[in-house]
Each structure stands twice: as C-alpha cells, then as structure tokens.
Amino acid sequence: MTNIRLQIAKQDIVRLFEAQPNKVFTRSQIIQILSRSREFWRVSDSTTVNKFITFLLEETKLKEIKFAFPSRREIRYMWGEVSIYELALCLKPDSYFTHYTAMFFHELTEQIPSTIYLNHEQAPKHYRERELEQSSIDMAFERPVRVSNNIAAYKDQKICVLNGMYTGKLGVIQIEGPRGEQIQVTDVERTLIDATVRPVYSGGVFEVLNAYRLAKGKVSVNKLAAMLKKLNYTYPYHQAVGFYLERAGVYRDSLIALLRKFERKYDFYLTHQIKEKSYSKAWRLYYPKGF
Residue 157 in contact with residue 165, Cβ under 8 Å? Predict the structure, then answer.
C-alpha cells in the first residue's frame, strides 16, 4: 500500500525535488520534505523515511553518495548530476574552498589537483599572547608538518576537510562553479597567504612560487599586507610572503617594500624539514637549496 501511494504521488514528488534550489540533501532534509508534503501526497504515517528514500532511489534520479572519512561515514543524496564541488560544500555547513583548490579556481596553477581542499573554520579561541623564541621556531620546523587525514575518496578525486583557525571567513568570496553553481572560495590574496602557510596543501613550495607569478595582475599587494596584519599569525609568515613576492620576479620593488615594513625579528623557514638550506639575509628566511 505504501508503494502504491508513492507511485500515485510520484509526479508531484519529482516536481518538488526538481524545484529545490539545492540538488544535494542530507537525511534530515529529506525527512523535512516528507514531513511537509506527507498530507498533500496522501502518504500515511506507515511510510517511514527509510521506505521513502528507498522509493526515491529506485524510482527517481536520486542517488546515494557515501563518503568514508576515517572517523565517520557521511551520506548525502544527490538529485541528478551535480559537481563534486557542490557535494563537498554540503559536507560542512558554511565551509569554503581553499589552498590548491582555490589556486585552481583563480588560475594560479597549471595543474589539475586531484585533492579538493575544503576549510571549515574552528570556533573562536582566546590565546594568551606569548613571546616567540628562536629555538621553538627551529624545533617546530625541523619536525614534519602536521597534515589532515580527514580525507574521503569520491570517484577519481579526494576531498580533504580542514579545520582551519577562526578568521570570520576573512577573504572568502562567492564565485560561479563549473556548472554555474554558487560556491565559496578564498580570494586571491587569502589564497596566496594560505598557500604560504601550508604549502603541503598547495602542491609544494615550487607550486606556491608559481602561484605568486601567475597572480600578477590579479593580486593587490596592499590588500595582501593588510590581510596578513588582520590574521595576526604567531609565526612571521610575512617573511615568507615577502620572499615569494621578490623571488617571483614580476612585482615592482615598491610593492615588495610593503612587506619589508613588517618586523623581521626571527629567522624563519619557507617550509618544514628542509634538507639542504639556503638563507636569505634580506628576509631572514631559510629555503630549499636551488629554489
């Protein structure tokens, strides 16, 4: 009887799903749809959400997608074909694309990254101000960089969910995705900063340098410097940003001078575990030999 009622209401059910602005649903969203429309469709209470979802999977173009993250499994329901970017954004509310994925959207790389990086900001935290020590910087960058294992495969790509520090979504903008969908992504300035801070999520330091070169004409160095001040990192990442701008060889010295105004109190590192180091006196920065 349940299936008969759903068959009778099938056209109305399909029409409702076609009219939804979003094409990816959680289980709770499908529960809400069933609850709101049950009376109109004349579907009895004996039609559980499991029966309803089974009907949709068998009789309509709804598909079930499973994401096997290490600590949990996420399930989403896709109406028709949608881009992987729409799917990824539905994994975490209010998340946005960052690092290598943002580089790809802004054409700051000539590669097609196989991993999609999605950032979901942590809640605001109050840190006690503490003075940096050169020995603590050296020790931190001699160790391997910490990387997220919060990764799930989808078709021939991977989705990596990062829990970045709270920024109030500083520098996050809305753009049009490959299927015309609206997606949130870091702007060019924030993307370059994020890539500098975590080159491991951005193709490595050589890819980051290339991103700085390709950003010429797209990036505002004034805005980049102002954003660095707002982010207020504990480590002096401004030294790495200035080094990249200079090493890119495409920016006017008057623009690079904006980064020279920042204090350079410590020796710093372009990345972790540099085996053979060269040193920039101007930026007080260690970088890989031959870079």
Answer: no
